[in-house]
Specification:
Blueprint lengths: L3 E4 L11 H9 L2 H11 L4 H12 L5 H10 L6 H10 L3 E9 H11 L3 E5 L3 E2 L2 E2 L15 H11 L7 E5 L5 H6 L2 E5 L12 E3 L8 H9 L5
Parallel strand pairs: 1-2, 1-6, 2-3, 6-7, 7-8
Antiparallel strand pairs: 4-5
Helix pairs in contact: 1-2, 2-3
Length: 220
Amino acid sequence: MKKLIIFDMDGVIFDAPDFWLNLHKAYGTIKEGSELTKKYLKTDYEMLVKEVVGRLWKNKPADVYFKMIDESKYMPGAVETLKVLKSRGYKIAIISSGPWDLAERAKKDADIDYVYAHKLVIENGKVAGSTDMRNWPIRHGNKGEIMKKLCEEHNIDYKDCIVVCNGDNDIKMARTAGLAIAFCPVEEEIKKYCNILIETKDLTLILKPIENFEMSEIAF
């Protein structure tokens, strides 16, 4: 049996492609935040965190952030699908560069087993401005390393792992997994590395290809 399913979060479990971009909009930092992301996302993630979290967002009101967490809408069929997969005996993980608090909401609502995401530190009702990189573990291109570590810790063969993803940062996971599903992809490159493409916003549509994968003895 295929034992582990890894989900990206933004645009897959939740129906919004980029939580942090929307937080920039809410905090009025979208222009500079977009410039910093373009400059540092793929080259110097630590600098990006220092500039955005340590400077732009420091002392911003936390209630704005938590309101967005609470009001984020699930992808149609998301909670239902996650519960079905759990009932079939799968372990489920989120590996996402989105917020830890949003992933924890999904974990609570759908009994998700493992969460790897970014934690925005809040103190006294404000963004603390902490740039401790232990709170920001997902770098561009390292999701595959986290996937492999998770598989090894639980003695799961990589080819018994399923990935549901939507962006280029998921390519290494998609290349390693036994089955990779591109769900409403926001970038074209990821499509090349996935076995299945779904472009309709309905997460229940992943159930059939996963069922087919379960039944197949042919390696993808």
